[in-house]
Amino acid sequence: MSVSQLFEEAYTGLKSLVVGLGITGKAFCQPQVTVIYPKQEVDNLSSFRGHVELIGKDDDPSVPRCVACGACVKACPSNCLTIQCPVPVKEGDEGKPVVMGPAPQKGSKTPAVVIVDFSLCSLCGQCARACPVDSLQFSDNPYMVRLDRKEFQIDLLARLRRMAAE
Amino acid sequence: MTPDLMSFDHPLTRLVVGLLCVFAFVGLNGLVLVWVERKVAGHVQLRPGPLHVGPYGLLQPIVDAVKLIGKQLAMPAGADKYLYWAAPLLAFAPVTVCFLPLPFDPALAPMRLNTGLVLILAFSGLGVLSLILAGWGSNNKWGLLGAARSVAQSVAYEVPLLLSVMAVALTAGSLDLYEITTQQGAWPWQWYGVKNPLAFFIFLVCAVAETNRAPFDLPEAESELTAGFHTEYSGMGFGLFFLAEYASMIVVSGVAAALFLGGWQGPFLPGILWFLVKVYAILLLMIWMRWTYPRVRFDQLLNLSWKWLTPLALIDLVLVVIVAGFGG
């Protein structure tokens, strides 16, 4: 390496040092982005990923669009979704208690039980992508706290009815 | 009113009072600097920094200190008992001595020595010894690596540091910091830092290396060596190393202020305030640099020191000799 190259390198190095100080100096003067939680709350939640929730039908928000096809259950890599629907009654079995079975099932077009185990969920979103009727989306509660891991088994149908009632 | 330390006639009385003041000064400034450091780090990264303990998080360092004091002092198995416990004391004690020749104000120089500069350089060089003892004594591979690094680092940066200081001492014709300060005036163009910016720059770079701070914090290097030489230290063992680091930061900033920025001299304000303003300006620059630059690699530090700073400092020294020879 020639001497002139050496000095050129030293010059660009020194210049980059000054530029670096300028960048951090500017950042020092900028407003902070931290949200200090109990005093402030985050406002833009459009990209937040909470646990998945069901989307209601346009004409009746308390009934999910879900057709109990089971695509989301198959797509979930963590096996955290459970969808059950009533097994169709066979001939001669009328009047007996309803038997529930895993979706999909012939003749069933609505789910009777939709449970997401949030303690297993990794929020990958494969279920929402797999859904053929766009019935799943991420919820937007960033402050979810539970005292027991069993409480993370969230009944999505009940949640949808509660949300529709509000 | 500035307190007049010179009114104590007996040098021993002055020394004891001065040492007590230095301990109080180091402790107080250590706390303030920890707070400043964390605040600057926060704001640079768009965070608020310490916030909840006291107004603006001002009491956070005190809480941290209480926590450190309350912790158990542990020693790893197979460690050298005497070296292990001597190291933190040896890290802290020499730094406090370095405050004695620093002239804070015409009336507030704990000890006037005609070789004050030599004393500071000698005792700050002792700090490296404590790092070696800590790394060797704790029977830990990271500690040992940190110690080895600190040796090579000190060999590399102390040469240009001494040369840049020598250039100023030659210009002033004295090794007494008080004398060197009075040779400069109140205005920036009378300062040695402006008359001889190359020496000032070299001194600043070497001062960062001397205090083992980022980007030259190779002996600690938390991402490579856990914590380097103080990996095994807990509680106040670590606390003393920590305090020594901040104390030596204040020392090198004080020396830089006295050598290059006219010390206590300045218009309008009392001397002690000017001195502290200059010291804190340099400290802020060091903190700012820490949160800007990544740590240099080991060979990069040695290359910088041997191939750039040492020759440049030598050239600077020769120029100073020529100018001093013709001028005075």
From TrEMBL, chain A:
InterPro entries: 4Fe4S_Fe-S-bd, 4Fe4S_Fe_S_CS, NADH_quinone_OxRdtase_chainI. One of its GO terms (cellular component) is membrane. Keywords: 4Fe-4S, Iron, Iron-sulfur, Metal-binding, Repeat. SUPFAM superfamilies: 4Fe-4S ferredoxins. GO terms for molecular function: 4 iron, 4 sulfur cluster binding; metal ion binding; oxidoreductase activity, acting on NAD(P)H. It comes from the Bacteria. Pfam families: Fer4_7 (PF12838). Residues 55-86, 112-141 form the 4Fe-4S ferredoxin-type domain. This is 4Fe-4S dicluster domain-containing protein.
From TrEMBL, chain B:
Keywords: Cell membrane, Membrane, NAD, Oxidoreductase, Quinone, Translocase, Transmembrane, Transmembrane helix, Ubiquinone. This is NADH-quinone oxidoreductase subunit H. The keyword Cell membrane applies. It catalyses: a quinone + NADH + 5 H(+)(in) = a quinol + NAD(+) + 4 H(+)(out). It is an enzyme of class 7 (translocase). InterPro entries: NADH_UbQ_OxRdtase_su1/FPO, NADH_UbQ_OxRdtase_su1_CS. One of its GO terms (molecular function) is NADH dehydrogenase activity. It comes from the Bacteria. NDH-1 is composed of 14 different subunits. Subunits NuoA, H, J, K, L, M, N constitute the membrane sector of the complex. PROSITE patterns: COMPLEX1_ND1_1, COMPLEX1_ND1_2. It is a multi-pass membrane protein. Belongs to the complex I subunit 1 family. GO terms for cellular component: plasma membrane. NDH-1 shuttles electrons from NADH, via FMN and iron-sulfur (Fe-S) centers, to quinones in the respiratory chain. The immediate electron acceptor for the enzyme in this species is believed to be ubiquinone. Couples the redox reaction to proton translocation (for every two electrons transferred, four hydrogen ions are translocated across the cytoplasmic membrane), and thus conserves the redox energy in a proton gradient. This subunit may bind ubiquinone.
